[in-house]
Amino acid sequence: MRKTHSSKRREVCVVTFGRSWNAVAATRALGAKGVEVITGDNLPITASNFSFHSKGFFSYPDPDKHPREFIEQLVKVCRKHARDDTDVVLMPIHTDSFIVSENISRFDGIAKLALPPYDKIKLLGNKASLARFCAEKGINTPMTKVIKDIEQLRKEAENFSFPAFLKITDSNAAIGLHKVKSPDEAVSKLEEDIRRFKLKGKDIAILQEAVPGEDFCATFLFDHGERRASMTYHNILDYPKKTGMGALRETVDATDIEAVGSRLLEMACWHGVAEIDFRWDGVNPPLLIEVNPRFWGGLGQSIESGWDYPYMLFRLAVDGHVAPAPPGNKQVKTFNPCLMSLLMLQEFVEAKNTRGELGIAIKTFEKELQSKKDHFKTLDNFSDMLSAALNPLDRLKAVKSVLDTNKGAVNELFKKRDPLPLLGLLYPLAVFLKHGKITPEMLVTGAGKSDDSN
User: Which of 63, 120, 166 is nearest to 444 (CA)?
Assistant: First the structure.
């Protein structure tokens, strides 16, 4: 029997990973529906904490380093808000949801959750077990070889088509992802990852075929094995270019892709949210790449397009079931101001090979000094070449091209009624100033953890 929702009950949602843009999007979506949102993180600077809709902030130990202490703190916070007249929902935003799912019994009688069982997370979230599951169920994927050790990689790579992708099996946010051009490069990268991540066990990586087409992100909410919502978006611009996070996104009509994703999640009897990456050339059947058994980087895109996943997930946790989502708007584009700024900076820097042009100018100058008597003309030529090398016009044109592509897109961070989360840009800015770059790993794990990743 479905539970009825009473507007008289107080509703509280504890949201984790408050530094993330996903958490900002979830906090705003829930707050707009009258839910009292409590945000948390293990970092002191978080975008969600600045939101008008965040009614409280708490800190917790790093879940990767101290999972037991992390769970204890979540239990403590949820118990603090649990009362007879209150529904408390715990909504982990990132991979901390895996730890929560593994310890879900700790929240019995304290908080409600809508998470897939931990064994299902391990089944679809691990790239090796996902490859086997897809092969068993007849779901199309690129050619994939599960790698147990270096020797097997050498053997499999001998007759594999390159370039290819090497991926460690338990990872997220492009951590341990390499596009390799040869067997030797694949072996070298895996040796580095084994040392760096202390990889061990029977399935440490996969070697996957690089296939033509474009990347699509299909998002889902399932209610005990039944689809209740799905939408797909496409990254128009990435930072770093072509390999990073979505800086500019658009919602697309992708019925074929969503049908494949739904079939996979139905067979896994999924419960909660998930995002599935696909590669599709628009002609052949779409190929499933990997599953993120959690919220996704473009959550703001989903919400702006009319798919309010955080609130649907909240209702699923409180009421036990949720109604199918109404159709959203498939003509929406959003942009992330932080990533767009970094992308424009990258375009500005890379638009001209200043160092190369300066080198040519200097060599030409030296050669002409030795061969010509008219030193004034030599100096004049050198001045022209120097000006051409340093001329920022080409750089500005590259930046303008990014801005033109961005026209009509919705800013996913800045909202007139809730402007302060834009201060959350201080965190990625601090990462960039410290390292001179920003990678998905740095944003996910924290700036300090990436010191050995340069």
Answer: 63
